[in-house]
Write a structure and sequence with these properties.
The chain is 58% helix and 7% strand. The chain is mainly alpha-helical. Strands 1-2 form a two-stranded antiparallel sheet. Strand 1 and strand 2 form a beta hairpin. It is globular, with a radius of gyration of 26 Å.
Length: 368
């Protein structure tokens, strides 16, 4: 609905307080009175908006977050700054708009970023929320994984990724072993700023129970100017399908799904379960990439150790989301060392941060 009012007919009569002397200037005394009224009116409006904003806040029990210090992205996500009280007053719609404002400025008002943020903010403010605990969230993720595993055409994956029969078997076996907790740990690595897995999981549960799953699926990535948002902060490097321009990441494996199961070819169009389906497809793509590179002795080592070193493979997947080339190099070093040490030992300093965060997230989720 437009907020613009239809134009009114101009009234050529001027109020006494605004009449001009000699029709050239406002009386100084009247000008001061007028400006004072304008200032007071503006101040009143600002105070009114502040009260309105406060009125929109609701009280939420902070549970496991009580006493934890919120800063950085955690403050933007939760609306809490400093030590977390037992009860916090939060307007999650306001927090989401605030994050998208930051995103828009970083993108220099990129048209697609602005349009995507506008749609997501409106949908969140007006739509129904799915408020669930972490246990039920993981059950829902498991359902998504089972659906992809059921419908994927592995022969199509083999053709697309140029895998021979034994390579395909290994890619399929590793992919089939991916669990909801693996997927959630990967998401926490992308979304949360902390290397404290317990805190990351607690923030996720707090948001799921109070802000709703849709909030998680609408959070923009604040450190890049691209149209990236959601639980995996996808960019066009991880999901891209444009006719005559090619496919990347999740969009490559997406071709192995039936039409009715496919995800969109643009990050801006991802909604709901599509985020998680896209992430699993991208996991399969990166698993296929590491198997493709693991020729000869490396292949035999990977085939022998992957079941007992699955956490290392999840770490690889999370780092490959961030820096695919460097992650593949680290995976090769890991296999050349016959996987004697965890994957993160083979990573450079930057990737090691992502790998260790994933390890901490896996450990925290494994205790649920």
């Amino acid at each position: 609905m437009s907020l613009e009012q239809p134009p009114k007919k101009e009234n050529n009569k001027k109020p006494d307080a605004l009449k001009k002397e000699g029709d050239s200037q406002i009386n100084p005394e009247n000008r001061r009175t007028f400006m004072k009224k304008v200032f007071m009116g503006t101040l009143g409006l600002a105070l009114g908006e502040s009260k309105l904003e406060a009125a929109r806040k609701r009280e939420y029990l902070t549970g496991k977050l009580e006493g934890r210090v919120m800063s950085d992205l955690f403050s933007l996500y939760t609306g809490i700054r400093g030590k977390t009280p037992p009860v916090a007053k939060i307007d999650f719609s306001y927090q989401l708009r605030k994050m998208w404002d930051i995103k828009e400025r970083r993108s220099r008002k990129n048209r697609v970023v602005v349009e995507t943020g506008t749609k997501l903010n409106r949908a969140y403010a007006e739509g129904r929320l799915t408020q669930i605990n972490l246990e039920n969230y993981l059950k829902w993720l498991d359902k998504i994984l089972r659906e992809v595993k059921e419908f994927i055409d592995w022969d199509s994956v083999a053709r697309t990724k140029q895998l021979d029969n034994k390579e395909l078997e290994l890619v399929r076996d590793i992919s089939q072993a991916i669990t909801a907790k693996d997927l959630a740990a990967y998401s926490l690595t992308e979304l949360m700023p902390s290397q404290d897995g317990v805190l990351n999981a607690a923030v996720l549960e707090f948001l799921l129970k109070n802000a709703g799953r849709e909030y998680i699926e609408s959070i923009p990535a604040l450190y890049d100017p691209k149209t990236s948002f959601g639980p995996f902060q996808f960019t066009e490097y991880a999901l891209y399908d444009v006719p005559k321009r090619g496919r990347r990441g999740a969009s490559v494996i997406n071709q192995a799904l039936p039409e009715e199961q496919k995800i969109p070819g643009s990050v801006s169009m991802l909604r709901g379960a599509q985020h998680y389906k896209a992430a699993f497809l991208f996991m399969i793509d990166n698993i296929a990439n590491v198997v493709n590179r693991a020729k000869g002795k490396r292949y035999e080592i990977l085939k022998r150790v992957w079941k007992s070193h699955k956490d290392s493979l999840v770490m690889f997947i999370a780092t490959a989301h961030h820096m695919p080339g460097s992650a593949l190099g680290a995976a090769e070093r890991w296999l050349d060392n016959q996987a004697r040490s965890p994957y993160f030992i083979s990573c450079g300093l930057h990737l090691r941060h992502y790998a260790l965060k994933t390890k901490a997230n896996l450990e925290a989720l494994s205790k649920l």
